[in-house]
Amino acid sequence: MVDPRVSVIGARMKGIRRVVAVSGGKGGVGKSLFASVFALILAEKGYAVGLFDLDFTSPSTHRILGVKGLQPKEEKGIVPPDFDGLKYMSITYYSGDEATPMRGADVSNALIELLSTVKWGKLDYLVLDMPPGIGDATLDLIKLLKHVEFLIVTTPSQLAFETVRRLEALLESLKIPVIGLVENMKLTSSERMREQARSLGVRFLGEIGYDEKVEDAIGNKDALLGTLFARKVAEITARIENR
Question: Phi and psi (nearest 5°) for 31?
Fold first, then answer.
């Protein structure tokens, strides 16, 4: 039996020009931080932007941005609140800081419910902070959203890249566009990740060195935008805009 909510998702996404899923093969690569700063920079450039935290396992964008005291409105659907010019939606509006342990069917149901009820309106970009790896949420998202593009974040670690390689192979087999690969927390001058991206036929968007000031900027939007990390993300954003 076809879930009637699925037919609504296309209408909810109709006014969005680009949907960018920020993903990573492993946790801890800086995926949520990149997604948050990427969304902020796009908004600073004057784009209409939404940020959707879909990392059901460990949502963290609200901590990164310092989102407090906001709640979505119910108006024949869910209207995400505005956070300094950014439309922001997260499962933490409903779960708070409690863990949300969900198995396959529960993850699929929650994803369908959110995609079919959240009213984004017209956006230039909707940035999705994805769970790490190739789990149910990623597989369902690919099936439910017709025009999603993936941006993959990794570290210089060979173990992290192994999961990236598997994710890219899946996306390629399903003909899902990959915007490119970002190497985060880089500590050396090695060109290995750039070469490995080339071997996969994936565009290397850039590298971001380890920035010790990021930790102190967590929860402060303006401080985040003043970090070296943010300056590097801005350079990468310009390449994504021109894609």
Answer: -60, -50
- pTM metric for this prediction: 0.94
6-241 homologous superfamily = P-loop containing nucleotide triphosphate hydrolases (3.40.50.300)
And the tokens for 164? 């990236």
Task: Give the integer Cα–Cα distance in Å for 182 and 106.
Answer: 31
pLDDT tens track for 203-214: 999 999 999 999
CB neighbour list of residue 147: distance below 8 Å, 6 or more residues apart: 13, 18, 19
The answer to whether the beta carbons of residues 171 and 141 sit under 8 Å apart is no
Whole-angstrom CA distances from 115 to 5, 52, 74, 105 are 9, 10, 15, 15
Is the predicted pLDDT of residue 110 greater than 70, yes or no? yes
Vertex 18, ends 240 and 218: CA angle to 5°?
Answer: 65
Q: Which amino acid is at 177?
A: P
